[in-house]
Amino acid sequence: SSGAAAHIPPPGQQLPVGEMPVQIPDDSDFCSFREQCLSTEGWTSRYSKGGVTVWGREEDSSTVQKLKMRIVCKDVTAETLYDVLHDTSYRKKWDTNMIDTYDIGRLTVNADVGYYSCYSPAWK
């Protein structure tokens, strides 16, 4: 092949992409993400109804709004829920709020970057 191999830095190091560096996530990044998911400190409940709770958090940048959501799905395994959410062709059939979704790239076997846009039921 005539193409050059892409250089992927070790976990925790950054890879420059244009003007924005991309950091390959390592175990400490996963732990930080998990802590943010479980923590309520700094988060404001914005919606809670029918087993769905949404929290918001103000960020330094006024252009970024950080949200997290928890939903209770009775009689559905975590594996099934993961598959249903990540199967983009099937999701187009059931997710009536989805505008578009696609994969941007895979950083590692357990880390990818994707795009998802949707209509918010609150905005309809």
Automatic annotation (TrEMBL):
GO CC annotations, alphabetized: cytoplasm
Pfam families recorded: START
Lineage, broadest ranks: Eukaryota, Metazoa, Chordata, Craniata, Vertebrata
GO molecular function annotations of the record: lipid binding
UniProt gene name: LOC116335503
UniProt xrefs under PROSITE patterns: START
InterPro entries according to UniProt: START-like_dom_sf (IPR023393), START_lipid-bd_dom (IPR002913), START_lipid_transfer (IPR051213)
Name listed for the protein in its UniProt record: START domain-containing protein
Domain START, chain residue ranges per copy: 39-124
